[in-house]
Design brief:
Elements: H1 8-17, H2 30-39, H3 50-54, H4 60-89, H5 96-100
């Protein structure tokens, strides 16, 4: 959490002061760390506008990389869903022995 506090009042005070735990350089680039620092500035007039952020060429590579990653996740999810549908609609994939089981496979009678 950016603002781990014990109670709501402490949380508001931390946000207003702009005191937070920086994001891990172990997992995130220095560019992203800098961006978070700029976005969490307490005074709104010192933060960049949405237009400035969208036009920031230094973020292009990171944004494209992120969008590519999200697209890969989407393609994989669609592929997995299609594969599950294919397997569930193919009667050759069903096992007659599994249909006869009424109990747990781990039970003493093996579920039969």
């Amino acid at each position: 959490l950016a603002f781990p506090e014990e109670n709501f009042v402490s949380l508001i005070q931390s946000i207003c002061r702009g005191s937070y735990t920086p994001i891990s350089s172990k997992h995130y680039s220095s560019k992203l760390s800098d961006l978070v620092q700029v976005l969490l500035r307490p005074k709104p007039e010192r933060r960049p506008s949405v237009e400035q952020l969208l036009n920031c060429s230094t973020l292009d590579k990171e944004v494209q990389s992120y969008l590519s990653y999200v697209n890969q996740l989407k393609v994989k999810a669609e592929h997995d869903a299609a594969e599950r549908e294919r397997l569930s609609s193919n009667p050759a994939n069903s096992n007659e022995a599994d249909k006869k089981r009424i109990g747990s496979v781990e039970s003493a009678d093996g579920g039969y």
